[in-house]
Amino acid sequence: MIYIRVLCSSCAKVIRRHSALLSKWIDHTGVTTRSWIHTTAATCNQSKKIDLDEFSPDRIRNFSIIAHIDHGKSTLADRLLEYTGTISRSADNKQVLDKLQVERERGITVKAQTASLIYQYQDTTYLLNLIDTPGHVDFSYEVSRSLSACQGVVLLVDANQGVQAQTVANFYLAFERDLVIIPVLNKIDLKGARPDEVCQQMESLFDIGKSDILQISAKLGTGIDLVLKAIIERLPCPQADRNAPLKALIFDSWYDKWRGAISSIALIDGTIKKGTKIKSNYTGKVYEVQETGIMYPNEQETNTLYAGQVGYLICGMKMTKEAQIGDTIYQDMVPVKSLPGFKPAKPMVFAGIYPVDQSEYSALRSAIEKLLLNDSSVSVNIDSSAALGQGWRLGFLGLLHMDVFSQRLEQEYDASVIITSPNVPYKVKIIGAKNIKQYKGEEITILNPSHFPDPSIISECSEPVVLSTIITPDSYMGSVTSLFLSRRGQLKDQLYIDNKRIMFKVVFPLNEIIVDFFDELKSITSGYASFDYEDYGYESANLVKVDFALNGLIVDELAMICHSSKVLENSKRVVAKLKEAIPRQLFEIAIQAKLSSKILVRDTIKAYRKDVLAKCYGGDITRKMKLLRQQAEGKKKMKRYGNVDVPKDAFISVLKK
């Protein structure tokens, strides 16, 4: 027998494989010997047993990478994994921690991922727990959860794009939690990099000295050792006690169809191992620990997790709802004070989701239920439409969240869906609600415009508002100002962050920015502006419901809620769309936009004309007049008894986002 001896670069272990079997396998799969070596090395690395007992709290560092979208978070995470030997070095290592197909296709991070790194520095081995966070404003909730398990953050800024809106938001998220911040300037290898100018921006906005900023290129691997050195030297170790009673925080969870809910936990005190009886502070249920481990970068089972460490826990939870984010886990019969939890995710945007064909309703319901197991931030309400059939009204954190959810439905479950135009939740106070059976309280939340109450019983309406941050070159200042004024924006503050860029703080009604605001902002600023927003509560507003009628019959699916100042503009837009979308009939169709009983906008779809005089040539004029009178009477009768058959495609063109 002849064996091939391969030295695994990850653990210096000699791997032996039978040459004949190896050659057959290579011929069958089409991979090269080199790629097989990398695959084998990675597998060998994953099979190593890791003893966490040696890592006392003073040799542990828990940190997150936070940045604006597309500033290189995932690339930096890849280089850190390579540099510490967690994964083998390979050109294929791109977005290693981005597990979803939609993340790899779009080049974005949607869900925060953890990975443990073992790194030797000055003859001491350290355990570094990395949490790679999303950068888009829609997933700020993921960022805030991740920061709760950390003692510090790496604030990454693109040397080419400079400080962006989400950079500012993430900085203050970390600052409010008193986390140590390591500023890092990425992409210094690009020709358009402006390190000195961007350092000035960071000093102006965050009061960070230039000497404290690390300059790296995550793509080329330049300066990665400086980042690891700063993490060990600048970040504090977790304040944890192994001998204290068990106390752990659940900061994330996902679902596995074979093992149930898997929780990401940060151990504050004590230890946890297989067989331990634990209790959830939120549900009060008792579970038995089935498996503990760390992400290295995939699940690596360990015997025990110790205080100060970050890992995963499997304990027989059947649903992710049991693994409540922010919940405190403690040993059964040994209660401890609960840790400060999280506010539940608050949906900001609502949209109707319907199957293209009602025969696919059951399959779509199953697909949505499975996705919800891994995304607890989506709210679900059953909805129905006379035009589109049975469906659901789902609540999302933002437009990108909605797009990602619908894309995952299509990619992972092959579901074809219709998504209606997004809207926001409104609050309405009812006069004498106690005397009206259908209203259980004085204040109700409206998720569907067709459920808006009669104006005669409304005492006050409120709409959600957001505090936004807009950063743009000052040459576009006039255009940006005109844009936010046209969207009912209220300027709160403005300041220059350097000689050429200005930052606006503007309060917007959420309904004004959820659809096309960002696209228009990018258009008028040639792509240089950045935009971020955060919840700012509710403000009283003069809101009205606009109905749309076809030949006098109101179509509930087309109803919309808008501010009184935008009624005419929005009504004209929808009526124009309807006129294009609805096919002509043998009788006229009147399209009306109505505010209560008042007609705001009216347009008409002309009827098809049948030439009844085509066969009349010559003869008495009375014959022609008789035919025309008969045609006119027939059209009147048809209009009186006929119904407007609006095809589903017409609704989709008007309602779709």
From TrEMBL:
Catalyzed reactions: GTP + H2O = GDP + phosphate + H(+)
Q: What is this protein called?
A: Translation factor GUF1 homolog, mitochondrial
Q: Which organism is it from?
A: Paralvinella palmiformis
Biological process (GO) annotations held by this record are: positive regulation of translation; translation
Q: Which GO terms describe its cellular component?
A: mitochondrial inner membrane; mitochondrial matrix
What is the first-listed, main subcellular location in coarse terms?
Answer: mitochondrion
Instruction: Decide whether keyword Metal-binding is in the record.
Output: no
Q: HAMAP family from the entry?
A: LepA (MF_00071)
Q: How does it sit in the membrane?
A: Peripheral membrane protein
Which family does the record assign?
Answer: Belongs to the GTP-binding elongation factor family. LepA subfamily.
Where does the record say this protein resides?
Answer: Mitochondrion inner membrane
EC number(s) per UniProt?
3.6.5.n1
What does the record give as the organism's lineage? Eukaryota, Metazoa, Spiralia, Lophotrochozoa, Annelida
Gene Ontology MF, one: mitochondrial ribosome binding
Gene3D superfamilies associated with the record: 3.30.70.240, Elongation factor 4, C-terminal domain (3.30.70.2570), Elongation Factor G (Translational Gtpase), domain 3 (3.30.70.870), P-loop containing nucleotide triphosphate hydrolases (3.40.50.300), Translation factors (2.40.30.10)
